[in-house]
Amino acid sequence: MKLRGPAHSAYAPHETLVAPARQYSELWRLLAGLVLVGIVIITMNLALFATVANTGSVELISSLQGGSSPAAMLILLASFGFATLGVALAVRLFQRRGLGTVLGPRGQVIDQFWRVLSALLILGLVLALLPPYDMGVPLEPNLPVLQWIALLPFSLSAVLIQTSSEEILFRGYLQQSLAARFRAPWVWMGIPSILFAAGHYAPNAAGDNAMLVAVWACVFGLLSADLTARAGTLGPAIAMHFANNAMALLVISLPDSLSGLALFHLPFDMSDTGILRQWLIVDFGVMIVSWLVARLALRR
Q1: Residue in 209, 140, 178 with CA at minimum distance from that of residue 22
Q2: Nearest residue to 37 (alpha-carbon basis) of 27, 29, 49
Q3: DSSP per residue over the chain, as a string?
Q4: Dihedral angle at the C-alpha atoms of 272, 273, 275, 278, nearest 10 degrees?
Q5: Cβ contacts of 279 within 8 Å, gap of 6 or more
Q6: Would you state the pLDDT for residue 1?
Q7: Cβ neighbours, 10 Å, residue 4
Q8: Whole-number CA gyration radius for the chain
Q9: CB 148 within 8 A of CB 278
Q10: What is the distance between the alpha carbons of residues 97 and 73, in angstroms, rounded to a whole number?
Q11: CA distance 61 to 58
Q12: Is residue 267 scored above 90 in pLDDT?
């Protein structure tokens, strides 16, 4: 049985995103679309990495796995755009709509994106002024400052591709398709968030913290789903995701994981589970505050 209408008034704007998917809300369409997205991602990545391999650059090829060089990181982040391509094909073939309907009204998307991002930048500056000023440990320089600045336009663009692609897939296509079929928020918020968390579960890399990282990702997904439902566009969720990843990938990163574009490295890596767990707990707090700031920004 197909249920219609928003679950409560706070999520009424979500109907703007859900309505275009209602006419084609059969679950087989969603599953077929996800299969298509997977095929596009796998096929395009195979083609991309084959192209990189044909360049003959051993250094670039070896750095792709962990994103340890600027070029490798730019390639890895840009490759997330294949997910957006897959979603665009899936919604066109199985839901008879365009990619724009997944994002929301263009003017609103841009306005809400900048409102939330501006508020989060102010929050970031405030947090930077608070102790400990070096995150409690001396940071290790990675890229020279001038090189980092020169790369910044490309780095920011690549992070925007990566974060917007994940939001288009999880808080866009998945969330909207499920909401078109099921009224209960725990379904259309919960299932995409659990899948998002599963994609971040990496016990080989994170060790004993793997489950904590996955829980963090699940909570992040739920908060992003909430913002999307309240705003009626993907703009706020993309802004929050972009602000988080830009800090984690471009400013201060772990040295052994997607570190090639960072200005600084932390003096510990994923194997230092005790120290990393402490910062993950802090990161939970920052995430909640960021979500609250984003909600306030949307009320202006």
Answers
A1: 178
A2: 29
A3: ----S-SSGGGGGGHHHHHHHHTT--HHHHHHHHHHHHHHHHHHHHHHHHHHHHTT-HHHHHHHTTT-SHHHHHHHHHTTHHHHHHHHHHHHHHS---HHHHH--HHHHHHHHHHHHHHHHHHHHHHHTSSPTTTTSPPEE-S-HHHHHHHHHHHHHHHHHHHHHHHIIIIIIIHHHHHHH---HHHHHHHHHHHHHHHT--HHHHGGGHHHHHHHHHHHHHHHHHHHHHHSSSHHHHHHHHHHHHIIIIIEE-TTSS-TT-SEE-SS-TT-HHHHHHHHHHHHHHHHHHHHHHHHHHT-
A4: 160
A5: 135
A6: 35
A7: 12
A8: 19
A9: no
A10: 32
A11: 5
A12: no
d(CA 230, CA 66): 36
Burial of 199 (0-12, 13-18, 19+ CB in 10 A): middle
What would the two tokens of residue 141 be? 């320089």
Q: Give every strand in the sheet of 140-141, ordered side by side.
A: 140-141, 264-265, 252-253
Tokens of 205: 């890399």
Cβ atoms of residues 159 and 242 within 8 Å: yes
Query: What is the residue whose two structure tokens read 């009626």?
Result: 232
Q: Residue 195 in contact with residue 252, Cβ under 8 Å?
A: no
Which of 5-9, 91-95, 202-206 has the highest mean predicted lDDT (pLDDT)?
91-95
Residue 7: how many CA atoms within 13 Å on its side-chain side? 16
Maximum pairwise Cα distance, the chain:
59
Query: 181 vs 131, which has greater pLDDT?
Result: 181
Residue type, position 300, single letter: R
Q: Dig out the tokens for 246 from the structure.
A: 């830009």
Where is 247: in which H helix or E strand? none
Q: Are residues 85 and 31 in contact, defined by beta-carbon separation less than 8 angstroms? A: no
Q: What pairing do the DSSP bridges indicate for beta strands 140-141 and 264-265?
A: antiparallel
Tens-digit pLDDT profile for residues 166-188: 999 999 999 999 999 999 999 99
Tokens standing for residue 38: 């997977």
